[in-house]
Amino acid sequence: MNKTALKKRILAGGVTIAGIVLTIAGGFIPSAAAKTMDGKVQCRIELDREVLPANVTRRAILKVTLDAPPSPASRKRPAVNLAIVLDRSGSMSGRKLAKAKEGAITALRRLTPGDIFSLVAYNHLVDTIIPAQSVRHPAAIEDQIRQIRAGGNTALFGGVSQGAAEVRKYVNEAFVHRVILLSDGLANVGPNTPEDLGRLGAALIKEGISVTTVGVGIDYNEDLMTRLSQNSDGNTYFVESSADLPRIFSSELGDVLNVVAQEVQIVIHLADTVRPLRIIGRDGRIRGRSVEFSLNQLYGSQEKYALVEVEIAGGNDGESREIAYAETIYQNPFTHRQDISSDRLVAWFTSDDTRVEQSANPAVQREYELNLNAVAQEQAIALSDDGRPKEAARALKESARRLKASGKRLKDDRLLKKAEEIEAQADKIESTGMSKRARKVLRTESYQMKQQQQSQ
């Protein structure tokens, strides 16, 4: 049964999973959730506190977490279909291009004959240097990479499109599909806006192709690069020194070679007494009392989560009530079957304010504050772009103040450290404006926080 049919069956009335029948009543699943087995993605759902005030309608933060299992040592990893799209415009000449080629070769050397590799180089023209092929003769491929020379302008859109065309030659087969785009400059040939690249990314994710973007130096368009990555569920990197490129390529391949779940769909069903207000950070969709998210893949031992602000009608003192049910449907690349993981959330209500306060969930509250800060970083960029650097600094200072207050309340060193960093960024922007570097740092950090990209 394919994923669409399975989802329709679940939403139509029920499906048996591991001997447990799940049924829906009024769009909500009140029965006990199926517990996943070892080796599968674990789905957890929780609130920012375990006990809620009785007889009071209040807002709360709901968090759904996916805990990916380690990649099984006893099974062969999924094969990779990788295209590297390399900027060879004039600005890449010298050390930048040399390190970019070294990074591409580093990635190539981590692949095996069962993987597919291709490389597209672009300036004002787009050339397929290495058509998609099995990695059976890596030495010959390395020689072709070393011969790439720099010169010309930057047809970034055309480069990504051609890289995707190479991946597409094997897109219907059981591979992990990935494009890695590297650029150090502005796209100045062909489509060149964040909206253009965002549409391209959105089209590619429908084919299961993610694009990771690597921006080098301070002259590339970070808005364009992050939009492309975001819409295709890829990673994004800001690399100040070209010397870091081999490490970044190696790290990215570590992710690509460690995929344990693909085509991941998360659906949160809310009880009739719960109303969704907004999604925080990650892109998603609210449909009535259901909230939906999609991810292209999960990596081994990785944690991904989604945050939703909800409004919950208060229950009676001493009452327990189901709040939500979450299910995750994904493709298991080792068994080539669809697996389902699920969990349900029950909250307790009390008139004892002390119990409510003591039931705080520090982990959920921390991630909520960090994601609000990511939103504040995006707001600061917009204000600076609009010629209001003082207001941009104030937005960051207000976020730092909130982080600091939450860090003290939760005794959380991570929040306190982030507050110091944001405060320092705000001071620089207030005194000298937002530099190219500061803008890239803010944009990249915001993206990586909202997407829970693993730090490199």
Write structural notes for this entry.
The chain is an alpha/beta fold. It has three domains: 169 residues, Immunoglobulin-like (Sandwich), CATH 2.60.40; 179 residues, von Willebrand factor, type A domain (Rossmann fold), CATH 3.40.50.410; 90 residues. It is 37% helix and 31% strand. It is built from twelve helices and 18 strands. It is globular and about 75 Å long. The two termini are 38 Å apart.
Task: Give the topology, please.
Elements: H1 3-12, E1 14-17, E2 20-23, E3 42-47, E4 51-53, E5 58-67, E6 79-87, H2 95-109, E7 116-122, E8 126-134, H3 138-146, H4 156-168, E9 175-183, H5 194-205, E10 209-216, H6 222-232, E11 236-239, H7 245-256, E12 259-270, E13 274-280, E14 285-287, E15 290-299, E16 303-312, E17 320-332, E18 337-350, H8 353-358, H9 362-385, H10 389-410, H11 413-432, H12 436-451
Parallel strand pairs: 4-18, 6-7, 6-9, 9-10, 10-11
Antiparallel strand pairs: 1-2, 3-5, 5-16, 7-8, 12-15, 12-17, 13-16, 14-15, 17-18
Helix pairs in contact: 2-3, 2-7, 5-6, 6-12, 9-10, 9-12, 10-11
Structure characteristics:
456 residues, disordered N terminus, six-stranded mixed beta sheet, 12 helices, Immunoglobulin-like, Rossmann fold, 18 strands, alpha/beta
